[in-house]
Amino acid sequence: MTTQQLYEQIQQKQSFLCIGLDTDMNRIPEHLLQTEDPIFEFNKAIIDATHDLAVSYKPNTAFYEAHGLKGWHSLEKTINYLNQKHPEVFTIADAKRGDIGNTSAMYAKAFLQDMSFDSVTVAPYMGKDSVSPFLAVKNKFTILLALTSNEGAFDFQTQQVGNEELYKKVIKTSQTWESSENLMYVVGATKAEFFKEIREITPHSFLLVPGVGAQGGSLQDVCKYGMNDKVGLLVNSSRGIIYASQGEDFAPAARAAAQKLQQQMAKLLHV
Amino acid sequence: MTTQQLYEQIQQKQSFLCIGLDTDMNRIPEHLLQTEDPIFEFNKAIIDATHDLAVSYKPNTAFYEAHGLKGWHSLEKTINYLNQKHPEVFTIADAKRGDIGNTSAMYAKAFLQDMSFDSVTVAPYMGKDSVSPFLAVKNKFTILLALTSNEGAFDFQTQQVGNEELYKKVIKTSQTWESSENLMYVVGATKAEFFKEIREITPHSFLLVPGVGAQGGSLQDVCKYGMNDKVGLLVNSSRGIIYASQGEDFAPAARAAAQKLQQQMAKLLHV
């Protein structure tokens, strides 16, 4: 997928919503627990109920790995379902990987080639050669952690390195790497005032924005400071949508929650 | 396992060798490719041939994930084999994970509880709440990336944050976190001169040291600057041992390569 195709999808759906498939066995409605693969059945129902409202889906690998082989199988089934039934959506493996070069190449193979995700999140701490193998995969995107939405973001990411914060240094440095046009960045919504300066450093990149909803970030503020002329934002919501109800009506309830966000987004696309 | 037990094992085996099970399907001897699970058969043979010479084994999860479900199964079989046949060895899931709190808790469950690794490597970029769920698991260790052995380490890790390098800030800050006694650190052998200052910050922690051998680090220098009164070092070798031969003699060849390192280590334990 190209960013132009992503932009067209955003225009068509009037949405820049990413739904986080952080599917937790303890929060899956009871009636699904009898099925052979409750995690996949849950994801499938959520996807079926929301795919016209969301442009992107983002399974976080931790929730799948927590169930070992069975969970890994659910992840594979989920991405296969997305790729086959809804090839227009932008898929993100929220894996936060990163290792020395030959090892990162293995992760790139796993997520971008074998499972055919459109993108994967990557941690920047190990520097250029830990990210390059992901960037080298054509027509795929590497979403680098810049400024995350959690409290721990202030431990290191916002520390001054020379005359700028570490997360800015990460963005600036990564823009000099080969195939940097394949980069996107994670920037948490809980720090909306930071978007203005980030857009000065990287006006054109798509930003993946967690932290709206459960974590307290404001959609309006994110758009005010973060939106560019090709939108340039994917705003993620996980728990607020997928656990809108834990009863048998979980899928229509998820749709209603997604629709609420989509309608706000549609307005913000026309400000 | 406690660090005291690890120290006793080091004394008994006269070794502080960690063997990296970075098992690459393309480098497995041909005669194993006919077996049902070549990766596990390879690991099993390496472990059987070296377990009296090494105190620790470290599968890097990337090499297993690269084969999807099948690879994940090989990883589970490998850790089960280690836990059952060689419960005295210190096992490391080299996973370099790290995410927001509730998500890191899922990774901690996967690696430290379900698979029962003794430890897991974690990336520090997302700060305290991304590491705490790992630290909270009793009698297990969190091995935080501090200064890695790759070229990209100089992109961010060695940048000045205030009046010290980022990797020092990571070590110092993490020492203030709850259950910090469960912390170890990754420090690359390729930067042996850095060990002196690291030991001033963290005199007692075990350091996991990659980069001896293939990546050019000197075992003597690492010991000179990094060893403490409880040894405090786990020196990793992966490719130099497990691919010492790619023929049918790969296991005895691995043993010979491991023995060479172990004999050097035995001498260094008595300097």
From TrEMBL, chains A, B:
It comes from the Bacteria. SMART domains: OMPdecase. The keyword Lyase applies. InterPro entries: Aldolase_TIM, OMPdecase_type-2, OMPdeCOase_dom, RibuloseP-bd_barrel. Keywords: Decarboxylase, Lyase, Pyrimidine biosynthesis. Pfam families: OMPdecase. The active site is at K96 (proton donor). Signal peptide: none annotated. Residues 16-254 form the Orotidine 5'-phosphate decarboxylase domain. It catalyses: orotidine 5'-phosphate + H(+) = UMP + CO2. Gene3D superfamilies: Aldolase class I. Its EC number is 4.1.1.23. Pathway: Pyrimidine metabolism; UMP biosynthesis via de novo pathway; UMP from orotate: step 2/2. Belongs to the OMP decarboxylase family. Type 2 subfamily. HAMAP family: OMPdecase_type2. This is Orotidine 5'-phosphate decarboxylase. It comes from Flavobacterium suaedae. The gene is pyrF.
